[in-house]
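User: Sequence in, structure out. Go.
Assistant: Echoing your sequence, followed by the structure tokens.
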Amino acid sequence: MSKQMDVRSRLRGRGFSIPYNLMLITLGSALIGFGIKAVAIPHGFLTGGMSGVALLVYYVVGGLEPGQWFWLLNLPIFTLAWWLVSRRFFLYSIYGMAAVGLFVDFMPQCLDIQDTWLAVFTCGVFIGLGAGMALRSLGSTGGTDILAVIANKRYNINIGKFRFLVDLAVFAAGFGFLDLELMLYSLAMTFVTGAVVDYSLNVFSERKMALVIAQNTEAVMRDVLDKLHRGATYLEGRGGFSGKRKQVIMVMVNNIQLKRLEEIVYSHDPDAFLIIGSGYNVLGKGFSSRKVY
């Protein structure tokens, strides 16, 4: 069992390697660029964050391509990334910003979506998935993602909610220049984007915490260790009605292992209690590693 857990730990350790981070940022930037170029720009949507500011300037002022405005407006924010986060985060984010700008400028407009609400949903999903994928790395795609990471790192503010608050400020500025109906569509798109960002950040990290109260806890523990290949902890409990002391097993599992845990528990005690709770961020051996920018 320990060998299997060590292998999983080594594989997770590679998740913060340079190639892995560059892959996440590149794919995330491609999705963001595709959402902006193929959906947002043809429909005149205003995306949130710094890309939204760049689009607003592009719609109103022109002069440069949207990707070039994005690069230019990002420069002051990168000073904060250098001083308040880390140089590694700064360098990864520089790469992410450049990648988004290039994808926006050179990616072809290959989607022809006529329905506006379908375009709202599609654009929100692409940009949200891209931003979430990039934020799972040790960098970002620049702009408000940098501010969101700083706010999360220092004040534990939810990244998706922070992005949405910044987006509201962008839309408040856009109301004076763009069509009201398009602004409302754009606002709806940011709801989708924020929800997808939070989902993509949590879905692969979500774990289930199980508390097992059974008669034969030693047999259950043995199967958890040998068959489920998960570590577990004994907690001392006492029955509220009987007053008898009992051993309670606490174990963290993923969604796939949850059904197997249920089978193990009830194969030993059909009258057992199995209490399941959600754990969105489990740090430690066999689970996620602590993210240090």
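User: And one key feature?
Assistant: The longest helix spans residues 18-43.
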